[in-house]
From TrEMBL, chains A, B:
It comes from Streptomyces natalensis ATCC 27448. Pfam families: HTH_20 (PF12840). Residues 4-99 form the HTH arsR-type domain. Signal peptide: none annotated. Keywords: DNA-binding, Transcription, Transcription regulation. The keyword Disulfide bond does not apply. This is ArsR family transcriptional regulator. InterPro entries: ArsR-like_HTH (IPR011991), HTH_ArsR_DNA-bd_dom (IPR001845), HTH_MetalResp_TranReg (IPR051081), WH-like_DNA-bd_sf (IPR036388), WH_DNA-bd_sf (IPR036390). One of its GO terms (molecular function) is DNA-binding transcription factor activity. It comes from the Bacteria. PROSITE patterns: HTH_ARSR_2.
Length: 112, 112
DNA sequence: TCCATCTGCTACCCGATGGTTGCACGTGTC
DNA sequence: GACACGTGCAACCATCGGGTAGCAGATGGA
């Protein structure tokens, strides 16, 4: 696990709200499965229209979880793990922060 | 970091959508700061009404990120790191999964 | 006991968002 | 060149979710 500088807060925010939607998570799953896929291929597998998939891919792209490139007349998308790892580390850091704060308060309550 | 069994998918989903809202993140921040706080105290600090805070605390509670107990006529809430750690681990696992799938596909593309 | 205060509903408003349909525009194929 | 297929864009709809206001019910303090 390479040690990148901490993710900016709004990048984390975008990842979180992108990941909050179940359909989006299913899209990511399907994408990770195939390595690469087009919006129409994903629409064939999931119970939503192609246009809905396209919208979701746009959001996932802006969050940096996915990247697309044009190949002939179709545009293929693939998954990118980097931002997800960043967000996981952010979350771990926050959890650790909570832990230490709670411990400090507990010490304080017990009279130093 | 203790090794709990993997968090169920819908618990992760609840944490993610709870964390997706900026106001909710600010509430968690403020809560972690003070160790404990009431809804009215938080409403005094944040730019939303007490009722909004109450709703958010309800969502955070259902996600398991927060717990409240009644003390006299006021109900105090505190933050709970456990679910956050679970979700971070889930996220790390998914990212690792993506990585290995991408690697496998790359090997395949390069002809075994 | 009376009052102030804090909580816990309920009803309501409005903007964001997930979803759909329809159509026009490239691009590969015969 | 004609056709098929995939994409991209725009309009539109319905629901969900964040936010507010108002009121009734506890609970501690004077």
């Amino acid at each position: 696990m390479t040690q990148r500088p901490d993710a900016p807060a709004d990048a984390v925010a975008e990842v979180l709200s992108a990941l909050a939607d179940p359909t989006r998570r299913r899209i990511l799953d399907a994408l990770a499965d195939r390595g690469e896929a087009t919006a129409t291929a994903l629409a064939a597998e999931l119970p939503v229209s192609r246009q809905a998939i396209v919208k979701h891919l746009g959001i996932l792209d802006r969050a940096g979880l996915v990247a697309g490139h044009r190949a002939g007349r179709e545009s293929r998308y693939r998954v990118i793990p980097e931002r997800l790892e960043d967000t996981a580390r952010w979350m771990d850091r926050v959890a650790a922060d909570w832990d230490s704060r709670l411990a400090a308060i507990k010490r304080l309550a017990e009279g130093s």
